[in-house]
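A quick word before the example. In earlier lectures we treated sequence and structure as two separate objects. From today on, think of them as two lines of the same record. Here is FBD domain-containing protein written that way.
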Amino acid sequence: MAVSLDFTFPDSENQNATLDYLSSIHRELYYSKSFEKIRKFSVWRLRYEERYAKDVDFGYILLLLKYYKFPQFAYKNSSLRELVLSRCQLNPCGSVNWSNLVSLSFEYMKLTDAVMAKVLSGCPNLECLELEYFSGIHCLKINFVKLRELTIQDYYDENLEILSPYIQHLEIFGKGSERRIEKRNVASLVNAIFRLNFDFEDQERDLEKECRYLMELLHGVAHVKYLELGTWCIEDLLSRYTNEDEQTRRFETHNFNGSFPHLKTIKIHNFYGSLSENKSVQSLIKYLLKHATVLDKFVLAASFLGSDMSLDYVKIAQEILSFPRSSPHASIVFSCR
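And the structure line, produced from the sequence above:
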């Protein structure tokens, strides 16, 4: 019989409550020894403290804070279907055998290209990969056909290149630096979601670099059918150019002048604010409408408190509806909630 074991520690500073919960995990693991398979095992919200060290059996609990050294025997488990690792140190001495794993998630991890390659080589049936709050990888190569979904959040190094010709769904969240995604590297991509915040110390000096990064992201997914952007990513870049002509010139100067021949749906989240605040995003909308030649739908999603919709928002909507569209079938939808 296969089971899934998920534990979430109570949000409490009470030492007795924490010790009681630790004891309950030990009991569950002890009784689970009679099961033939444990398909999923995760432990959340346990902060490492010396006072609990003697009560934690690391032979049982693998997913703990303070970069626990992942045991060698655990790299060979053909029963696992879903695995979530947090703050673990990975260093497989031999080959990895997670042959039935379909979902893998790493968070708060220091990784290397070699370790990641070895792990992925042992997951031939992997369908979904999530990497969150991590560092150390510079080139992520995924060459097997079954992996279709890739999520990346808060990568802490300067450069990450993604080579995954078979993924169909890509999500990138969090603080952005340089992420190179070339079209040949994600040739099968259908859906792309970017909610990034470009964060540089010297804003004036790095404006050119930021535009280049945004250009590479858009060109790298020019063939997708669904593109979703967070406005705070785009605004962070373009709001620094207050003049609309300057914003347009920046796009053309940095070779944004290309078409999106397969893009059918675009969605921009958190679209709100005054008319002046949204001028920068409007330049991007105008550009996308001009170059998305087969676009079906452009969704602008905004959130308001009650019926608090400003007159500015109505003016913005009217202006956007007047923008020229290269696709005769393109509709613009304003979603408010």
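Notice the following. Residues 175 and 199 are 7 Å apart (CA to CA). We will return to this example when we discuss secondary structure assignment.
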